[in-house]
Specification:
Helices cover about 70% and strands about 10% of the residues. By secondary structure, it is mostly helical.
């Protein structure tokens, strides 16, 4: 096969991966809370990992206008998945963070998903897994530098 053919195959496989990732994010969101939308799940994951943030940071990070972030934050607060508290560095500003319940639910979903992934890839050796992760990392890094 030529390089052009392989690049075409790469695009096809990445397309399959994207569709699978979208489906998995939706499944994970519903497992955390039946009313949690996939976009809000990604925001919640970021907050659970990075800790409390201002809404403006979320707007910049996800390239979403502040009004949309505000609506997502309110919805997540209504679901009990986010908490708001004053920013100690600036009492006029608010910080948002994942609630303890959200962190607990997300950890359970992560454990279940990791267990499922381990079952699906049980026949892969550690070297196979490492090579795939390394290759995927190189692919992502090459595309990050492309802008």
């Amino acid at each position: 096969m030529s390089r052009a053919d392989e690049l075409g195959r790469l695009e096809q496989e990445v397309g399959v991966l994207i569709r699978r990732v979208k489906r998995v994010i939706g499944e994970r969101a519903r497992a955390v809370h039946p009313d949690l939308q996939p976009a809000s799940y990604l925001m919640l994951t970021f907050l659970a990992t990075e800790g409390p943030q201002r809404s403006s940071v979320m707007s910049d990070r996800f390239n979403v206008d502040k009004g949309a972030i505000s609506r997502q934050v309110q919805h997540l607060c209504d679901l009990g998945l986010l908490v708001r508290e004053p920013d100690p560095a600036d009492g006029r500003a608010m910080l948002i963070s994942a609630s303890a319940d959200a962190v607990r639910r997300m950890a359970a979903v992560d454990r279940d998903r990791r267990r499922w992934l381990e079952e699906q890839l049980a026949e892969w050796s550690e070297a196979d897994l490492r090579d795939f992760v390394t290759g995927l990392g190189r692919y992502n890094a090459a595309l990050d530098t492309a802008g």
